């Protein structure tokens, strides 16, 4: 009998509108992902928005604004786990971050709809679509721009393969050469090898020039007891 007592046509209509808004906007966001053949496409984004809207709407029906606020906290954390499922690591490359962020935004869009804020839901969906479409030309423009090494934040490693007998002398010379080139060392490490040791110096500076580092490793490679010297860079977190 509680089901009959709780039947309220106005509330049901309100819920229908909230779910409809979430479904339509989630579908619009997902359609763009589907078009680009992303892991989380149309159905996932539509269902995420729909589910978030339903949870928030139910929280409001049961406990008002306080209930909706509590449910939103759980929706945000739960969608975070869902978004992690579309992130794929392939070697040194990570794919799916933008799709995971889109799923997260779809949940917020549904949350707005469930909280009876359709205008805000529409506004957010518009910004999400703009971020995934209008910003793409800007991203391509930046990626095609020449890289200014002096402005690039990166981690530089200088590696020297040395004989065990000359380890200490070569390590001291490595430090002197780098400091003379105004490249202070942040960290030093030694990796044992069958034919000796590999000394790895991580530079404290976030920018360097290839010409200077080439000169440093060329001088190190000419040292007695050094079989190989090189440098490499990697992006910082």
Automatic annotation (TrEMBL):
Membrane topology qualifier: Multi-pass membrane protein
MgtC/SapB/SrpB/YhiD N-terminal domain mapped to chain residues: 19-140
TM ranges: 12-30, 42-59, 71-88
Principal localisation: membrane
Cellular component terms per the entry's GO annotation: plasma membrane
Domain MgtC-like C-terminal: 156-231
Keyword entries, A-Z: Cell inner membrane, Cell membrane, Membrane, Transmembrane, Transmembrane helix
Locations listed in the record: Cell inner membrane; Cell membrane
Described function: Virulence factor required for growth in low Mg(2+) medium and for intramacrophage survival. May be involved in regulating membrane potential by activating Na(+)/K(+)-ATPase.
Protein name per Swiss-Prot or TrEMBL: Protein MgtC
Organism: Methylocystis hirsuta
């Amino acid at each position: 009998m509680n089901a009959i007592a709780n039947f309220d046509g106005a509330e049901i209509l309100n819920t229908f509108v909230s779910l409809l808004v979430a479904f339509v906007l989630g579908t619009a966001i997902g359609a763009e992902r589907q078009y680009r053949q992303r892991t989380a496409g149309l159905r996932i984004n539509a269902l995420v928005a729909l589910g978030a809207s339903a949870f928030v709407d139910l929280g409001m029906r049961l406990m008002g604004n306080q209930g909706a606020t509590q449910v939103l906290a759980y929706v945000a954390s739960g969608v975070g786990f869902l978004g992690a499922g579309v992130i794929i690591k392939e070697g040194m490359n990570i794919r799916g971050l933008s799709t995971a962020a889109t799923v997260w935004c779809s949940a917020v869009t549904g949350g707005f709809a469930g909280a009876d804020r359709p205008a805000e839901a529409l506004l957010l969906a518009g910004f999400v679509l703009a971020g995934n479409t209008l910003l793409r030309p800007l991203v391509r423009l930046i990626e095609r721009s020449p890289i200014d090494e002096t402005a690039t934040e990166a981690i530089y490693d200088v590696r020297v393969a040395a004989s065990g007998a000359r380890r200490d002398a070569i390590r001291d010379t490595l430090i002197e050469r780098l400091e003379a080139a105004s490249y202070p060392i942040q960290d030093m490490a030694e990796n044992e090898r069958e034919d000796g040791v590999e000394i790895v110096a991580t530079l404290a500076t976030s920018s360097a020039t290839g010409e200077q580092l080439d000169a440093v490793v060329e001088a190190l490679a000419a040292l007695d007891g050094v079989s190989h010297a090189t440098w490499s860079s990697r992006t910082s977190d």
